[in-house]
From TrEMBL, chains A, B:
PANTHER family: D-SERINE DEHYDRATASE, ZGC:162816-RELATED. The lineage of its organism: Bacteria, Pseudomonadati, Pseudomonadota, Alphaproteobacteria, Hyphomicrobiales. One of its GO terms (biological process) is D-serine catabolic process. This is D-serine dehydratase-like domain-containing protein. It comes from Rhodoplanes roseus. Residues 275-365 form the D-serine dehydratase-like domain. Keywords: Lyase. GO terms for molecular function: D-serine ammonia-lyase activity. It comes from the Bacteria. The keyword Transport does not apply. InterPro entries: Ala_racemase_N, D-amino_acid_metab_enzyme, D-ser_dehydrat-like_dom, D-ser_dehydrat-like_sf, PLP-binding_barrel. CDD domains: PLPDE_III_LS_D-TA. Belongs to the DSD1 family.
Amino acid sequence: MTVTAPDRSIILFGAPGSRAKIDTPALVLDLDAFEHNVALMAETCRRAGIGLRPHAKTHKCSTIAKRQIAAGALGIGCATIDEAEVMVAAGLPGVLITSPLVTAGKIARLARLVEAGGDVMVVADHPANVAALDQAIGATGRTLRVLVDLDLGHHRTGVGTVADGVRLAREIASWKALRFAGVQAYAGHLQHIADHAERLARTRAADALVADLVAELKAEDLAPAIVTGAGTGTHRINAAGSPFTELQAGSYIVMDAEYGGIEYAPGESWPFRPALSVAVAVTSANVPGSVTTDGGTKAFALNGPRPRVASGPLAGAAYEFSGDEHGRVSLPEGTATPALGTVLECTVPHCDPTIAHFDAIHCVRGDRLVDVWPVDARGRRAPLPPG
Amino acid sequence: MTVTAPDRSIILFGAPGSRAKIDTPALVLDLDAFEHNVALMAETCRRAGIGLRPHAKTHKCSTIAKRQIAAGALGIGCATIDEAEVMVAAGLPGVLITSPLVTAGKIARLARLVEAGGDVMVVADHPANVAALDQAIGATGRTLRVLVDLDLGHHRTGVGTVADGVRLAREIASWKALRFAGVQAYAGHLQHIADHAERLARTRAADALVADLVAELKAEDLAPAIVTGAGTGTHRINAAGSPFTELQAGSYIVMDAEYGGIEYAPGESWPFRPALSVAVAVTSANVPGSVTTDGGTKAFALNGPRPRVASGPLAGAAYEFSGDEHGRVSLPEGTATPALGTVLECTVPHCDPTIAHFDAIHCVRGDRLVDVWPVDARGRRAPLPPG
């Protein structure tokens, strides 16, 4: 299943004022801010002499992935086999699946991607998984690059010690259909530490563990070609001297309200700009002091700061969820009740799961809707296998 | 965009043990429990002499809507124009859109549905909206049935007083292309009151307001043909004598963990069975005492009780979210660590937004996967309009 018809909003493309006519609820991407963010992260990595493999779990959108590659990224991170299938089908290079694929069904799908010539890699954290990968890939006559996933204290995936990491790398290298390609070490638990000094100290401690594993691997003649990790929250620290050869940041393309409460660096504010909002419309205005809108818990992620109205006469007003399909906005004192149908653009709580609620991203410049990009890696969109 | 290929799991249909091989994360529907629930609500309404127009916002699935109609439902509730477009296209009768449609784009889409002969109605709570509806429908040469939406204290949508309700009904009846069809009064804020006595008292108080409006309308020669409302939480109270001609319950088809904490009736437990779960797979098992799975905040709704493992050796173990793509399950003492790839079925926090995360519903009987139904009203799936 692929998104063929982008959206009926296409009829408004380029018309003055069309931004305010986008069918709600909708994701709205400010292209100027987005392009600034894409270019800035690419330039930051270039200057630091480090690679960038941005994570597609944020956007699930092959159009955005292509923009990132065009700006210099060396590949794309994917959280799921579904995302990887879409990115490979769209011709994206250097697709790294950043979570272990362990079920028979997912390993079979990975093997089909490899067999079709997809430029894809995967991480692993367990010898049983490595053996299963070799068996499936071996049957295709091709080879698969596999990275050792190292746990930096998040306790989500990864081997827990340097010794286990070396053992697993040796294991990978021992199989006929697999190639040991490097190390992944992603510190998800460090990305949102608000205090910069603490984030710096803990990131450096995590870096030391990664450096240990890299050194041990080199000593074993298993020098990792790729050392990948880091997110938007620690990218600057990791870019400024770390064992990493590349960064996996994702959120920087659009930012979200979560990063508003995090100290970028001493005396510096975030150079990435909030580029994404959720547009909702006023659908009821019978209760004095508030209006109801058409965006509820099916339009916003709940794991992040509460949305706020981003601009216009109600700017700053907080969003109160009023069920799965509705939201409520209290009117700031002295504000006139907006007319039914008024579109309010709201801040995004946590970007990844908010984007995953939508089929399309509405791209705007100024007051104009100029494009619609399908969130084509959302859900399960790969075709049925033969048979 | 329509779901044409259901799912690659189709290759397992009917095979013994295929339930445990469903590709994760996945929605799993126990057909025996689901069919019990559909039949029981239909029978409850029949016995009470009240109609049933179940709400499709719960399932967003035309296959389920057809099952409900086959069991005797007189129509289908829809929260959005997107849902209504899918249900009408699938041939469902009596589609009632239960939130006001106020933007120009949505009213135009509603007019297209009416023009195409769709059996569709909508609620309204404001004269300006009624005027806009008449203008759009008038241009089609058809008529549209419109219900007055009455606010029962939720303060989400609806007119706030009986007098406003009568005025709006008169307004609807005065337009050429509109027909006054009745009253909607949905008490979303009463559905989850845990204590039965309190839920009963507050529902009866709300009923009194509805009865007042109905009486006033009759006195004005505007007798409402339809009086619609109620949800799963208050259905029994509303069915046992109320001003309603029909119920709008939705959650009863699958139930969810939210209803676990709510007293059904004095001395009685819920007769509807939990029919839905989210299947996840163990993807990492390197941390003693816990395992990581492939279901995070993109697979479960967050506005409900935390998921638990529903069956098997880890039954009852609580789910801890570990990001958008991962969950963690602590192993009960004495439990062996499950093998990588082990599928765990988990309870559903809040059914509506959980279902809305998925493209497909995997239907099982016993240990077998027997069907896959597309969640075809998820997202925006209607074709582009001409031009």
